[in-house]
Write a structure and sequence with these properties.
This is O-antigen ligase-like membrane protein. This protein has 17 helices and 2 strands. By secondary structure, the protein is mainly α. The chain has one domain. α2 packs across α4 and α6 runs parallel beside α17.
Length: 386
Amino acid sequence: MTSSVLAIQSTRVIGKTGMILLVFLVSCSTMISLPLDKVAMLGVLGLLLFHQIFQNKSFSANSLFPIIGVASYFLLPYLLNLPDSSLIIFFPVLGLFFASLVSEEEGFLDIIYWAIFIHIVAGILFVFSSYLVGYNIYVHPMYDKGLPFLHAAKGFTTTVQSFGTLLISWFLIFYWKKESGILTRLDSIAYWIAILGLILTFNRNTMVVFYIILFFRHRRIFITTVVLAIVFYLYYFEFINKLIFNVSTLNSRADLLQAFRISFFEYSAWKEYLFGHGNNMVDEVIARTTIYRTGYIENGTSVLLYTYGFIGYVAYLAAVFMFSTLLFIRKKVFYAAMFFYIFLLAQQFTHEFYATTLYLMISVFLIILNSKSPNATKGCVFPPAE
């Protein structure tokens, strides 16, 4: 009996470790030249579907119908703009399907937690190695802010903000575990390692999101760090201006939208206004006439308008408001505020609608929405300060 129990436990440990590594690969878009993150996402989807079928579980209509609706709508801009449309516009459907299946498994939260933590540790090590051994492609020297000696962590993601999304997702799970009273000493150690990873992003958007976390979860620390930040800012005025308040990056983002503005507002007909262009990239002919000569659209609102039209963008806004309201109604105010900021405001800097990192975060929010915490009331607007 003992040997059979040990065999079952060993199998579970091996299975969970394998799943953690597979989810880790879901977060890795630049580890190799191939789209490893998408392939890994399909692998996780396959395993989850097999698990659903094996246990004779039916798909939730609340999850399935919205995804079918999104996929059906995406067909419109795709078909209306052939042959210039792109299949990449359907990736959010895959991402949402992935998130909906993951949300059916509450235990998956711990798998995402440790998978992301592996990536955080790797990102930190790459930063240190870039100083000790030499530059590597997994860091971002901050030439754009006039601080090339600072190497921002981005791990195996395409941008520093995507790495920041992984960090914020990890912190969301950490605080959910804390609410549930299941934190261990290992979690406490991991927390400070994640804090180091957060600092090494040098990313203002990620820092703002973390400050929102501090406001809700550590009010005294929030007030203390704000005071210290003001003092530090006054003392290191020029350096902080370059790092945080550098307007050149904001101006460059505005210039990057030039191709979008020309294509969408000057050359679009009614169908493009309503249903979009069915492509997340501006036509190369127009892009060549702009400063940066690129059709890439960095701003979240702009890419949604351009790709899916006003109808698609309004539907996105409605979904964000609806999901935030659901979290609020279930007394998860902290998570409602986080979701609202991340999906309505943070995406304006560098959107991630076609990155797997965003759908890992959506998975986290969905699991938290569907879970019951013994201390759910701690999500009130003004919880006891820690």
